[in-house]
Amino acid sequence: MRLTRRGFLGAAGGLVAGTALVGSGKRNPLNGARTASSAREDAIPFYGRHQAGITTPPQRCSSFAAFDVTTDRRQDLAGLLQRWTSVAANLCVGRTASPMRPSPDAVEPDSGAAIGLGPARLTVNFGFGPSLFGVGAADRFGLRDKWPMALVRLPRFDGDQLSAVGTGGDLTVHACADDPQVAFHAVRQLARTAGEDASIRWAQTGFNEAQAAGGTPRDLLGFKDGTVNPTTAAELDEFVWVGDGQDQEWMRDGTFLVVRRIRVQLDLWDAQTLATQERVIGRHKASGAPLGRRSELDSLDLDRRGPAGHLIIPPDAHVRLASPAENWAQMLLRRSYAYDNGASVPPAASGEADAQAALDAGLFFCAYQQNPRLAFIPIYTKLAGRDALRQFTTHTASAIAALPPGASGPGHWVGETLLG
Amino acid sequence: MRLTRRGFLGAAGGLVAGTALVGSGKRNPLNGARTASSAREDAIPFYGRHQAGITTPPQRCSSFAAFDVTTDRRQDLAGLLQRWTSVAANLCVGRTASPMRPSPDAVEPDSGAAIGLGPARLTVNFGFGPSLFGVGAADRFGLRDKWPMALVRLPRFDGDQLSAVGTGGDLTVHACADDPQVAFHAVRQLARTAGEDASIRWAQTGFNEAQAAGGTPRDLLGFKDGTVNPTTAAELDEFVWVGDGQDQEWMRDGTFLVVRRIRVQLDLWDAQTLATQERVIGRHKASGAPLGRRSELDSLDLDRRGPAGHLIIPPDAHVRLASPAENWAQMLLRRSYAYDNGASVPPAASGEADAQAALDAGLFFCAYQQNPRLAFIPIYTKLAGRDALRQFTTHTASAIAALPPGASGPGHWVGETLLG
Questions:
Q1: With contacts defined as CB-CB under 8 Å, which chain A residues touch B192?
Q2: Is the terminal CB of chain A with fewer CB neighbours within 10 Å at N or C?
Q3: How confident is the model at residue A101 (pLDDT cuts 50, 70, 90)?
Q4: Are B192 and A358 in contact (CB < 8 Å)?
Q5: B104 and A273: CB-CB below 8 Å?
Q6: Whether pLDDT at B242 is above 50
């Protein structure tokens, strides 16, 4: 799957309009905190109809964590989400997790590690994994009848080599910010705030390159990351947000998140000729144009054939298989980060005695959608089997989560529509 | 050991003067490339008397890697260092590793992933581990008589829990830049450039918070990172650079690097009262002042006693044990980064059946010095046994390396003084 952020990056375009709708508060007159939070230029409103960090233009740093709930009491789970909401709302305006009590004999409620750094465009959103609803697990919280129909466990895809711990989780937390210490600090404070009610299961940090002025950024493959994302308010309503009557009522204005950590065999990729790389992706590397075209913004003509009758964009090219035209017009809102986990023996060579380490790096793929059963799962099932890019990639971590709607303002909390 | 960067950050102060000496080229009239490289405001000169990235004001992102040399031929090793020098010099001015040859049937010499990002203040420096000189290994390259006397293998310190692979290495590479993709790209291209001559052994990414205007930044402990670093040219000559006749002649104008990945048990630290944290560090958390003083810049008076006769800064406080006054006036030039490796079971709990994961984060400590036998080793031997902060930290990776002088200009290479 091609991991792209065009649309997020253009100064014009529908997403900006869509974001403005969320940011202006016009759609949600209940939100009393928004004006105050927006006063700082680098603050993204935490409260709103939708959770932040989904249509928000991507920040430079990402800190994702999945948690296991360690209590069996529904009221403890609700309390955890109330505390998390309060902490996140404070951090997103550049405050400490809760007000500091500078007394020598007190334990301070915040490590202080992000004091003075400002909001740094921090967003924090929360999600619920299938296990929270008793799917593949005991129904500890009596939530089975609230289980969203779109929240299925992901199947095992061709080629998956998921780490035993680096997958799933009852709860997901995703903090993104322009400062790595601010993003990490949020996850750290939320882990601490969980106390006895949840413990961290796995976590992954990511980064984006500084956004080049005017240019589409390149991914670790060296290609411009510039395929289509839903951007207009109409597209977001059609493909991303859960609408009235489309799933459980508590999920209205929410969305579903799929994350995949995709290790790229960079040395093998780098050893390919330019022509091979371009055939695998289906675009020209230098310009970003579809194969056979000149400009990055030229449309993707999947039926175009060369003089000998062959398809210009090969049958197994990544852009072909991932395009909405080949996927029942489904679209994912992708908002991915690069990751770099140092060096280790690649999964494919892990059984060999003389196996050498290689960089463990690639994409932390994040995709938002109205229904993974119609979007990520069928799209990636096809890609996992046929995408030419699959020769160079291994999925090593995975999670799926239902992201409920945002908290509409102070006094409300994320998860209230499910547990309130 | 307190990991600090004051002095780097102040707009005034001796380090700026010291850097200016390096940057202006006044001390090294041979360096013809400097003026050209400095033309871009965000380029740090690669060529110079000393390697860059040592006294350079810290960038936001760090990518460190250690390599094992996989050839036994001295000329291959020299060739590797020549190629690495060339690639690093190109990347540091914002070019690709070598010029691109846009031909469909050619393998491109650079992944293209950093095209358009500019130099982003990239620095790259190279170091030689003890094993390269046949210490604890075969003398494959006939370098035993060039072995620097200061380049000893680090002893096992109290409390070390080093990962088997995450330690040592024949060669070290450290890339720092203000853009994470630029820093990572450098290590990736250098790993590729190594070809059959070296393979990556371990790697670690790090980050700094965005530097707050006018304020001393805080570390993950929540304290201002503000203890003393050598900053003036005289201090750098005394404590950091290898002078004439002080070690092997090929190391003149070089230095020695010690890196340690220090995992911090953040949950345990966060559970301490403010008074306990301040006693452990020896400074006030909010102000950064030494205990009992008011201002961050007040001097550290280690002999000051309270009315009952007790030392105001406790005997096992980190700032006391790490201070030059307690260490034969030795100083380390510290240039550390925070790291975040996701979540895993802490080393201390790794044998327990019900052990829970926790954030694997802390400091990627980097210290430069003229002689580790007089600086890091005795200082940390004492700290490992007595520092109150040791209750909260575990060292999980380690390396020591001799960093030779810089390449003086195009046509010269890092390592030429040893292998040329």
A1: 266-267, 270
A2: C
A3: confident
A4: no
A5: yes
A6: yes
Contacts of A413 by beta carbon, 8 Å cutoff, 6+ apart: A81, A82, A84, A85, A86, A407, A420
Residue B60 contacts by C-beta under 8 Å, 6 or more apart in sequence? Answer: A180, B177, B178, B179, B180, B207, B208, B209, B210
* Stretch 220-279 of chain B: residues touching chain A, C-beta under 8 Å: 220-223, 266-267, 269-275, 278
CB contact, 8 Å: A60 with chain B? yes
Supply the DSSP symbol for B179: S
CA–CA gap between residue A103 and residue A157 (Å, rounded)? 54
Kindly state the helix (H) or strand (E) to which residue B23 belongs, with its residue range.
helix B14-24
Contact flag B271-A112 (C-beta cutoff 8 Å) = no
Record: contact A102-B274, CB cut-off 8 A: yes
Residue A205 has pLDDT above 80, yes or no: yes
Q: Please check whether residue A214 touches B, CB under 8 A.
A: no
Residue B127 confidence (pLDDT) above 80: yes
Residue ranges with strand state E in B138-254: 171-177, 198-207
Helices (H), ranges, B195-335:
233-239, 266-270, 274-281, 318-322
Which of B111, B205, B338 is facing A181, going by the closest CB pair?
B338
What's the confidence (pLDDT) of residue A91?
A: 98
Distance separating alpha carbons of residues A397 and B184, to the nearest angstrom: 21
**Closest residue in A to B345 (Cα–Cα):** A201
Tracing tokens 């010029």 back to the chain, one arrives at B99
The pLDDT of residue B350 is 77
Phi-psi category of residue B329: left, alpha or beta, with phi > 0 → left and psi -120 to 50 → alpha: left
Which of A112, A192, A272 shows the shortest C-beta gap to B218? A112
How far is the alpha carbon of B149 from chain A, nearest alpha carbon, in Å?
30
Q: Measured between CA atoms, how close is B389 to chain A, in angstroms?
A: 15
Question: Looking at chain B, how many residues does it have?
Answer: 420
Tens of pLDDT, residue by residue over B248-292, are: 999 999 999 999 999 999 999 999 999 999 999 999 998 899 999
B99 in contact with chain A, both atoms CB, cutoff 8 A: no
Give the distance from residue B92's alpha carbon to the nearest chain A alpha carbon, in angstroms.
Answer: 16
- Spell out which residues of chain B touch residue A219, defining contact as CB-CB under 8 Å: 113
State how far the Cα of B10 lies from the Cα of A242, in Å rounded to an integer. 51
* pLDDT of A12 over the 90 cut: no
Q: Provide the CA B317 distance to its chain's centre, in angstroms.
A: 24
Chain centroid to Cα A413, Å, comes to 21
Interface of A with B in 317-376 (CB under 8 A): 338, 340-343, 356-359, 361
Scanning B26-55 for CB atoms below 8 A from A yields none
Give the closest-approach CA distance of B126 to chain A in angstroms: 18
> How does DSSP assign B64-82, residue by residue?
EEEEEE----HHHHHHHHH
B325 in Cβ contact with B299 (< 8 Å):
no
**Does residue A126 have a pLDDT over 70?**
yes
Give the DSSP letter of residue A88.
H
Find, among B334, B379, B368, the residue nearest to B256 by Cα. Answer: B368
Residue contact A275–B104, C-beta within 8 A: yes
DSSP letter, residue B191:
H
Per-residue tokens: B379: 């200082």
Please list every residue in chain A whose beta carbon sits closer than 8 Å to the beta carbon of residue B111: 220-222, 266, 269-270
Rounded alpha-carbon distances, angstroms, from residue A90 to A120, B38, B157, B367, B405: 13, 42, 41, 36, 48
Interacting residues of A67 by C-beta distance below 8 A, sequence separation 6+? A169, A170, A171, A172, A173, A191, A194, A198, A199, A200, A201
- Reduced to 3 states (helix: H, G, I; strand: E, B; else coil), residue B207 is strand
Task: Tell me the domain boundaries of chain A.
Answer: 14-99+108-419
Q: What is the ipTM of this complex?
A: 0.88
